[in-house]
Amino acid sequence: MALPIAALAWRSTQRGGASFWDVISSPEAVAALKLTLMMAAVAALTNAVFGTITAWVLVRDAFRGKSILNAVIDLPFALPTIVAGLVLLALYGIKTPLKVDAGVVHFKADITFTRWAIFMALLFVTLPFVIRTVQPVLHELDREMEEAAASLGAGSFTTFRRIVLPNILPGILSGLTMAFARACGEVGSVVLITGNLPYKTEVASVFVLQRSASDPVGAAAVSVVLLTISFAVLLVIGGLRRFATRRERA
Amino acid sequence: MRRYLPRSVVFLYLLVILLGPLVMMIYRTFEDVGGAWGAITEHDTLLALKLTLVVAAIAVPLNTVFGIVFGLLVVRGNVRGKGLLNAFVDLPLALSPVVVGLSIVMLYGTDGWFHWLPDNGVQILFSWPAIVIATIFVSLPFVAREVVPTLREIGDEQEQAAHTLGASGWQTFWRITLPSIRWAVIYGVVLTTARCLGEFGAVAIVSGNIDGKTQTATLRVEDAYQFAYGNYAPAYGISLVLAVMAIVVLLTMTFVKPREETA
Question: What share of chain A is helix, strand, coil (3-state, %, to 5)?
Fold first, then answer.
């Protein structure tokens, strides 16, 4: 595992540092990297919000079929990413059944070849991360604190913001970072639905995939940037974990 | 009203992102069952499915042994840099699979570090060994990540007791350690299997994607879509086979998880 990564890093600098920067600062690579970071951030944040609500519902709400819902959440982890892409194409592709064509209203939920496609694909594959990090924390959380806050006259929103949120925040953040990392490196689910148009819908991983044979040095340079992002994410998660255990001990 | 709001939001979100598209894919597959079934039973598709299963059959046991040994080393062993080792094993989770694929090309390609292998007729790249290496790389952390916390939690008192009573290291492992971490191992194996069956990015770079030879099931799906010319039933059909495998994995997961928690 260490050897291939070393070979990759070495190879990317093989034609000298100047060439590495040439590739990295080429407009197409910059566009792809920028788009990747932006879409990954937006998707991870969206899933942080919905993931927190979902975790809350799974722990605190009671209704029939909750265990089925709980199992369904893991589906994006189990489903091959290329299948995830096709699944989205079935509903949001060219042949989408979601269309309105009445008089002045023309609407068709065809998102292929747009940035919406990247957004939806990333939402799909990163769906479980925040839910699975927040759920156990919420489960362990002592309800007495919330009851105390409520009896002291705090509204449910205030209780959530002042009592629950600070406790689950490390969980939300580590899920968010993991989702971000996953979204930055995603290939399978985006490769079919986005059309990979340079400057518009081509993300960094697809850039690497398409150039792996024709332009290995260029692909290696962008890969090193992705590798650096991964290391940074692992450092952040390690830091969050230490922060959480220190708080527990305190 | 207030009670139903959060769960309605969750249902709607899952419907838009996950369930709606999934149901639609199943519907589209059965709209043209003949086309879908034809694609599934095509010779090259069957070979692709077989290749995927064979690769998983090699990668999963290797990663299981690795995960257990790694867990024992990090939790029980006395090695320096445990924290670093622990972080390093998580890397494939945060890393793009295409980066994994490309780094394997850099190592085993004709101008890679190990170019003497292909030079002497040992074909790694664009052949099954590269697919196996890539799959092992991306699915490396799953067993290790389940085993490490469980080993920490159970402590080593029982192992020490066995040792005092004269059990050898090997006996202690088989009789005490392995039974107490078995659910963690099984859960890890399930996750590893799912990842092996579904790997796309890394395999797409290293395999060469030759029909009937180095084409895995996920690559077959991509091909079926790229050359669909408006007829998506074949791609949906093969996808559905993979999706069914995923659902079997998922069911095993939900079956195993509660046991582990109550044990």
Answer: 75, 5, 20
* Cα distances (Å, whole numbers) of residue A205 to A202, A220, A232, B109, B232: 8, 11, 17, 20, 25
Which tokens sit at A191?
A: 């490769």
Which residues, in sequence order, are CB contacts of A239 under 8 Å at separation 6+? Answer: none
Q: Which residues in chain B (88-127) have CB-CB distances under 8 A to chain A?
A: 88, 90-107, 109, 112-113
- The boundaries of the domain holding residue A28 are 16-243
Residue A248 lies in a domain: no
Q: Are B153 and A14 in contact (CB under 8 A)?
A: no
Given CB atoms, is B153 within the 8 Å cutoff of chain A? Answer: no
Number of structural domains (chain A) is 1
Domain extent for B100: 71-262
What span, in angstroms and rounded, lies between the C-alpha atoms of B176 and B186? 16
Residues A208, A186: Cα–Cα separation, whole Å = 11
> Cβ contact (<8 Å) for B18 and A124?
yes
pLDDT tens-digit series, residues A144-199: 888 888 888 888 888 888 888 988 998 999 999 999 999 999 999 999 999 888 89
- B1, part of any domain: no
Element (H, E) at B111: none
Specify the residue for token string 């192992």: B159
User: Contact, A132 vs A54, CB < 8 A?
Assistant: no
B146: which chain A residues are within 8 Å (Cβ-Cβ)? none
Using an 8 Å CB-CB cutoff, list chain B residues near A208.
Answer: 96, 98-99, 102, 205
B52, B215 in Cβ contact below 8 A? no
Give residue-wise pLDDT tens across range B228-259: 887 888 999 999 999 999 889 888 887 876 55
This prediction's pTM: 0.90
Partners of A108 in the β-ladder: A99
The pLDDT tens digits of the residues spanning B24-34 come to: 999 999 998 99
Contact between A193 and A89 under an 8 Å Cβ cutoff? The reply is yes
End-to-end Cα, chain A, rounded Å: 38
Please give the ipTM for the structure prediction: 0.88
Instruction: Give the containing element (helix H, strand E) for A165.
Output: helix A165-184
Closest to A114 in 3D by CA, of A47, A8, A194, A176: A194
Give the integer Cα–Cα distance in Å for B167 and B73: 20
Provide the 8-state DSSP code for A62. Answer: -
The alpha carbon of residue B136 is apart from the nearest alpha carbon of chain A, in Å, by: 9
Total of domains in chain B: 1
